[in-house]
Amino acid sequence: MQYQSGQPADEAGNPNDAETPLSPGGDLLVIDTPGAVLGKHSERLQVRIDRQVVREAPLFRLRQVVIASRGVQVSSDVVQVCARRGIPLHVLGRWPGDLATVSVPIGNQTVATRRAQFRAAENGLGDTWVRRVIEAKLRTQVALLRYLGKHRREADPATFHALMAAIPDIERYADAVPVVGWSPEDVALVARLGGPGTTGFAEAGTVPGGVDADGDDTQAGSDPEGADEDVPPTPLMAVLRGLEGAAGRAYWGAVGTVLRSHGVPWTGREYRGTGNAFNAALNYGYGILASQVQTAVHLAGLDPGAGFLHADRAGRSSLVLDAIEEFRQAVVDRPLIGLASRRVAFRMTPGVARLDDPTRRLVADAILERLDGLEPYGGGRHALRTIVGMQASRLATYLRGDAVAYEAWVMRW
Questions:
Q1: Does the pLDDT at position 8 exceed 60?
Q2: Within-domain flag for 237
Q3: How many Cα atoms occupy the beta-carbon half-sphere of 62 within 13 Å?
C-alpha cells in the first residue's frame, strides 16, 4: 500500500498547494491489499487492515485515490468527501478497461468539448489525433530501445545489436503512420511492412498481429470472452493498428532480449490470465497508468468512453485506452525494465494468475516514482503525471478547434 507525495515545496520547504487546473498531479493513495478498509477520520482518510490503522492521508494534500485490489471496503463518508472535494476515486479491475471512477463534473468547457469530441469521429480530427498518438508511441519505443542500449555496446554486444536491429523497422512503421490510408494499395503496403499475418486485416475488420501482438491492449488476450470484443471501429483504425502491431513485434522482440539477459523468463507478451510475472507486472502497471489518464481526461472535460482507436463499448473507457498509448513505454515499460535490469524478482501468487502483494507494491512504487520524474516538455521540465494532464488538455483544445494541430509527446532518451 502506497501513499505517494508528489507535492512540490516552496523555498522554505513548505508544501505548495497550488495546482494547475488541468493537471492531475498531487498526492496519490494506492490501496492494493485485499481486506483493507478505507474510512474517514476527521480531516484524513485512514486505511485499516485487521482493525489496525496502517496508513493515513491528509485530505488537504490528497489528489487521487486508487483501489487496486479486490475485497477493499470503502465507507460512504469517503465517497462523499472525495466527491465534495473533487478527489477522483478510481477502482481498478483486472484490466484497464474495467476501471470505474467516482468524480463530479467540472469545467465550463465540458459541454463544448464533448460535442466537439463526438463530431471528431466524423470530421477527421479524431483520425488525425490517432495518427499523431501512434506515431509518437512508436518514436518513444525507438527512444526507449536506444536508452536501453546506451551502456550495452561494450558490456553486452549481443543484446546491443538486437536492440539496434529492431529500430529501423519501427522507424519505417512510424514513418508510414501519418500517410497511410485504407485503400487496397495501403492494405498491401501494411501487409508488406508487417509481414505474415497482416494481409486482409482491414477487410476482415480485425488485426491479426495488431494490438494483440503488441500486447498493449490489456482488454485482449487468451480468454474466449475477450477474443472478438475489440474490432477496430473503422478500416483506417484497422490499418493503423496493423502498423502499431508490426512495430510491437519488433519492439517486444528486442525488449525480450534485454529481459532474458537479466534472467527474466520471457517468451513474448501475454495478457488475460497470464502466468508470467513480468507480463502480469506490465498489465498491472498499465492499470495504474489508466487511472492517471482517466483523471486527466475528466479534468480536460472529455468523455472517457468516446474513443477513436478503440471501438465504443458499454462500460469501457475507450478514450482512456486510446490516450494511454502515448505514455505506456515512458511510464510503465521503462521503470519495470529497470527493475528487471537490477535483477529484482517478480513473483506470482501460488496457484493464482495474480502478482503477489510484495510485487504489486514494488510495481506501484516504481510507476508512481516514474510519474513524479521530470521530463522535457514545452521548453521546460515537468513531472510525467503533469505532462499526462497537459496532453489531455491539449487534446480537448485541438478537438474544439482552438488549436490547429495536436502535438504528441515523445520521450527523449
A1: no
A2: yes
A3: 27
